Amino acid sequence: MGNNPSKQGRNPQSRQTGSRAQNLQISGPSGGLQMIPTSERDGTGRPIAHRSFEINRDQLLLAFRYMAEYLRQQKANLTIYVAGGAVNTIYLRSRHSTGDVGS
User: Fold this and answer.
1) Alpha-carbon distance 103 to 56, whole Å?
2) 86 near 40, Cβ under 8 Å?
3) Where are the domains of the chain?
4) Which of 1, 40, 64, 83 has a 20 to 30 Å separation from 55 between CA atoms?
């Protein structure tokens, strides 16, 4: 894709720019996708799997009320979008509860 040809030249570490070759330096991975906050880890450094919870319609609505009150106290003006399990449980009522709630 893009404007560059997909086939590599004889020397993948250099590329022609006009009439002169330009050496490329490829670094190792840096940064990348991270969970915020980072997941808890056990003594060996492996991520700890947390229990999942089912939340019903009344609990979800109460959580949204608490969130709305907190945001009102902070004088925050923002839009909250709800998708997935919360929509199915609150609006469509196609589920009694959901574990599909994230932030």
Assistant:
1) 17
2) no
3) 55-98
4) 40
- Both tokens of residue 33? 């996708």
DSSP for the chain reads --SS-SS--S-TTEEEETTEEEE---PPP-S----SSPPPB-TTSPBPPPPP--EEHHHHHHHHHHHHHHHHHTT--------THHHHHHTS---SEES----
Would you put residue 44 in left (φ > 0), alpha (ψ -120 to 50) or beta?
alpha
Residue 1 has which token pair? 């894709």
| Residue 31 phi, psi dihedral angles, 5° rounding | 65, -125
CB atoms within 10 A of CB 86: 20
Return d(Cα 16, Cα 8) in angstroms, integer. Answer: 12
Q: What is the pLDDT of residues 41-60, one digit of tens each?
A: 888 988 888 777 899 999 99
Q: Is the pTM of this model over 0.85?
A: no
